[in-house]
Structure formats: structure tokens, C-alpha cells
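Quiz preparation item.
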């Protein structure tokens, strides 16, 4: 069943990304960038009223642009593990689609192989997550798995070292992230669940010098991913 995404950048990236079919674009603003991207992709653009766009976007901030698209194309975990020197983000219990979207934006910017999320009790790549990602969701592969602990085991069998982000772990600057690696981040409230943590090879921490003891999950993901990229010379 088709989905509706909204916002200038998410719609443009869906048109450019080619990972899912864009059926039509509805524009209340006459945006030239959207028109150009739609023409290149062979997708029709329909001029509509702001009221119609607002209805389709269900009250969200839409910038006068919506698109009808095919459902989000999740990938298999094996697809992420088959990339050269995999660098994979695993999210455990992140329920806010805006946080998921922000992590996807970071993963795209840092060149991560992809993101793993659980099917249950976690945010999926919804229209809100797509908007929060500024369209990065249309480029970053996301695997949705039934059991995170088994996914960690599978990553290790594929040669990845998997680390849970938690207080008391090895400071991220002291951890060797030059090889295939998985980084597990939990929700701000619960952190990484015990069973998932027990399956990891170790823990990584971000030194906190202030009064607040945690970072937003997307900020933590950015620090860890860019440290991995620094170590890899990229």
C-alpha cells in the first residue's frame, strides 16, 4: 500500500535515491528543485492547494510538498554485512521516529554500512522518520530483525566486533574501530538491554564531563561513527 512522505528534501531524495517507487508528487509551491528531480525520475507532478497538502501530511510540517511512494524497502542483515569493512549501527529500543531519523541522517553522513532495528517495540522508518532524516532514509540501508541478540551473533560470525555503548566502557578514542564493527546504542531511558549487551564483545563509552550523564542517541551515534572514520583514515 502506498505511503505518503512530505517535505522538500525527503521528496527530492526519494526521487534521486531510486530505492523505492515514487508514484506522484503533489506540489503547492511550484518548487523548481522538486520539479527538476521529478522530471529526471520520470515522475508526474500535480499542482494542488496548500490545504490538500496539509491533509495528506496529516498536520505535519510539509513545506508544501508531498509524494506518494511505495513502502519503505527494508533490507536483510546479510546485505549490510557483505559490504567492505562493515560499519553497522544497531538501535535497541529507540521508539521515537525523530531519533531514528536523526540516526539515519548521521549514518548517511558518516558512510555507515547501514542501521539495524528490531521489528517490535521500536520505531520503524515511518513518514516522520523520513522527514527527520532529511531524506537520508532513502539512501541508508535499514535491516529490520526479529531478535537483536541473534542479529549480534550473526554479525560476530560475519567477522564484526560488536560493542555496546554504555557508561563504564572503553573510551571511544581508545577502542580499535579500524576493522569490521557494530555499534549498539540503546534508548536514553533504558540503554542497551541486558541480553543484547551480554552478546556483545565489549562496551564503548563517551566521556561525559558535565552534570548530565547521557547524550541523545543520534549525537552518540555521530561521535562513534566519526571516530571510526577517523581511525580508518576517511
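Solution:
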Amino acid at each position: 500500500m502506498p505511503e505518503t512522505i512530505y517535505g522538500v528534501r525527503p521528496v527530492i531524495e526519494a526521487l534521486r535515491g531510486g530505492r523505492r517507487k515514487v508514484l506522484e508528487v503533489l506540489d503547492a509551491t511550484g518548487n523548481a528543485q522538486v520539479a527538476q528531480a521529478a522530471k529526471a525520475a520520470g515522475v508526474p507532478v500535480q499542482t494542488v492547494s496548500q490545504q490538500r497538502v496539509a491533509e495528506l501530511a496529516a498536520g505535519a510540517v510539509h513545506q508544501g510538498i508531498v509524494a506518494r511512494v511505495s513502502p519503505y524497502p527494508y533490507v536483510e542483515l546479510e546485505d549490510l554485512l557483505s559490504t567492505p569493512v562493515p560499519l553497522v549501527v544497531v538501535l535497541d529500543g529507540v521508539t521515537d521516529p525523530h531519533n531514528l531519523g536523526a540516526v539515519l541522517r548521521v549514518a548517511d553522513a558518516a558512510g555507515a554500512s547501514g542501521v539495524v532495528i528490531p521489528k517490535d517495540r521500536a520505531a520503524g522508518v515511518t513518514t516522520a522518520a523520513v522527514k527527520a532524516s532529511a531524506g537520508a532514509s532513502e539512501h541508508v540501508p535499514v535491516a529490520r530483525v526479529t531478535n537483536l541478540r541473534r542479529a549480534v551473533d550473526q554479525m560476530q560470525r560475519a567477522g564484526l566486533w560488536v560493542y555496546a555503548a554504555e557508561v563504564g566502557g572503553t573510551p571511544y578514542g581508545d577502542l580499535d574501530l579500524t576493522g569490521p564493527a557494530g555499534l549498539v546504542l540503546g534508548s536514553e531511558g533504558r540503554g542497551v538491554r541486558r541480553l543484547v549487551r551480554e552478546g556483545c564483545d565489549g562496551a564503548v563509552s563517551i566521556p561525559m564531563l558535565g552534570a548530565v550523564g547521557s547524550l541523545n542517541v543520534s549525537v552518540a551515534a555521530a561521535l562513534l561513527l566519526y571516530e571510526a572514520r577517523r581511525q580508518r583514515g576517511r
